[in-house]
Amino acid sequence: MSYHLNVLPNFGVLEAKLDQKHIDLLYSYIKETAYPGYNFEGNTVVSHAKDNQWSLIDHDGKFENEVLKPAVNKYIETWGWPMDMKSTHFHDLSLNRFWTRITTNDQYQGLHNHQGVFSFTIWLKIPTDWKDEVEGDKAFSHPEATDFVFTYTDTMGRIRKFNYKLCPDMDGTMVVFPSDLNHMVLPGWTKPNDYRVAVAGDISLNSNFVGEKLAG
To answer: For the whole prediction, is pTM greater than 0.85?
Structure first.
């Protein structure tokens, strides 16, 4: 007897490691728009203000053109569009929202999704190691400390999780995913005075750039 395994269609998460030049570009965007009270030594945050999230400006679309568009094209080639087309024409995709979030390790982001077609998160600086967060008895009380977690339903309707176990080796990592995919960031317990630096954004349909009519 022979078997053939059919993997049912689903949408994945694209992961990429940024080049240093793009990491430096993102830090330059962060530093030029940071609230008063933020201070940096190179790409290291040495002091922060009360506000921990603000918008960034992608000058001349440099990051969008060099990083985001190739990543989104690769995503679509692999998994297709994570949405039903309900317009009369194809639309171009454009970077819509773009922001940074600088937090201490004990802060978190509750379960949420975004308003776009695709979203992305980039971990520029992870000061902690998940292995330290769950060492010893701590593994029982907070086994997912500092994890970045996606939640979704499988083909049986059961809620599943996909965890990114964060550590310094993840610095410079970008993940691209459908904006409707729920995700969260859990708090940690070690190194409470160090800063986690992340950049995120949404990629949406651009109504100013309308392409060919959809085949009907």
So the answer is: yes
The DSSP output letter for 130 is: H
Chain center to CA of 118: 10
Q: Which two tokens stand for residue 213?
A: 């009519």
Distance CA 88, CA 210 (A): 10
Structure token pair of residue 63: 């990051």
Average pLDDT of the segment spanning 38-52: 90
Cα separation, 61 vs 211, in Å, equals 20
Does residue 124 contact residue 197 with C-beta atoms inside 8 Å?
yes
Do 170 and 126 form a contact (C-beta atoms < 8 A)? yes
CA–CA distance, 118 with 175 (Å, rounded to integer): 10
What is the tens place of the pLDDT at every residue in 135-154? Answer: 877 666 788 889 999 999 99
Per-residue pLDDT at 214: 57
Q: How far apart are the C-alpha atoms of 40 and 45, rounded to whole Å?
A: 5
Listing DSSP states for 20-70 in one string gives HHHHHHHHHHHHHHPPTT-EEETTEEEE--S--EEE---GGGHHIIIIIHH
Report residue 141 as tokens.
Answer: 């009380």
The mean predicted confidence, pLDDT, of the chain is 90
CA distances from 90 to 43, 93, 95, 207, 213 (A): 40, 10, 16, 9, 6
Cα–Cα distance measured from residue 74 to residue 175, given in angstroms and rounded to the nearest whole number? 12
Does residue 153 contact residue 118 with C-beta atoms inside 8 Å?
A: no
